[in-house]
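stage 2 :: seqdesign
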């Protein structure tokens, strides 16, 4: 384990504390659903987490975060964009929330997309590439990304839901890292991640605003039946697409751990 990986893990721990316990502090120690955290105002804990990341990147002079221009966008992104369009059709069915809530959802999910992509597909992934094989780095990064969502239970109190969300997040996390590797840039993954989260929250908040989840008994039945696996079902196209995009990735594509891969 080299010095960079140790520093990256330290940044990871600090990022967790700022993101999760920053939200807990802003809530005054109370529990709140995730949609409440993103629809009612600016998520300053996300802003603080981004400041931590950018400070670490500048301070440690990590210049391989892939903030450059992407390549092969159409070839890589055509199917993920189709998935987003399909998800957006669900949002149209459930109805959109009011303008103020929608605006905060868009802002906060883009902040989350930037923060999580830079943390996982930037800081951690690049550090891991200097220590392990590329597929080990992919798997470890994806598992850590999925696993961190279990800690949403700290703020929501819903540990079962947080565990399901963690599995779905891990499945989607694979497409985010595939996009970074195949386009040579972190920006498409940031945008896709943010828009993906935005659509999911618009569906949830819109359905609540339009009276589709007002019955607590019905909501409980949904969480105990087959529909509890809906987050994984929604993430499945991302997961399959990622496996296809990553099928030709080899260690030889990363000769120095920081090179832009050449994957056919």
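stage 2 :: out
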């Amino acid at each position: 384990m080299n010095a960079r990986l140790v520093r990256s893990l330290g940044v990871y721990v600090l990022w967790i504390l700022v993101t999760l316990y920053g939200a807990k502090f802003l809530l005054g120690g109370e529990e709140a659903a995730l949609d409440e955290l993103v629809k009612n105002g600016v998520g300053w804990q996300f802003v603080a987490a981004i400041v931590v990341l950018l400070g670490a990147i500048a301070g440690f002079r990590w210049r391989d975060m892939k903030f450059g221009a992407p390549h092969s966008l159409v070839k890589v992104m055509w199917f993920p964009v189709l998935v987003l369009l399909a998800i957006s059709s669900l949002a149209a069915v459930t109805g959109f929330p009011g303008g103020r809530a929608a605006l905060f959802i868009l802002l906060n999910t883009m902040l989350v997309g930037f923060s999580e992509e830079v943390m996982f597909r930037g800081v951690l992934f690049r550090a891991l590439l200097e220590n392990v094989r590329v597929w080990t780095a992919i798997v470890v990064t994806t598992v850590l990304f999925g696993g961190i969502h279990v800690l949403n239970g700290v703020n929501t109190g819903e540990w079962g839901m947080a565990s399901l969300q963690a599995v779905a997040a891990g499945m989607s996390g694979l497409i985010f890292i595939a996009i970074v590797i195949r386009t040579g840039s972190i920006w498409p993954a940031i945008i896709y991640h943010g828009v993906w989260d935005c659509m999911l929250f618009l569906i949830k908040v819109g359905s609540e605003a339009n009276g589709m989840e007002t019955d607590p008994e019905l909501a409980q039945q949904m969480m105990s039946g087959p529909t509890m696996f809906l987050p994984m079902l929604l993430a499945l196209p991302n997961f399959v697409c990622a496996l296809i995009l990553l099928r030709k990735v080899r260690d030889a594509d990363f000769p120095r751990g920081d090179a832009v891969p050449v994957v056919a």
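stage 3 :: structure notes
- Residues 3-253 form one domain.
- The chain has a mean pLDDT of 85.
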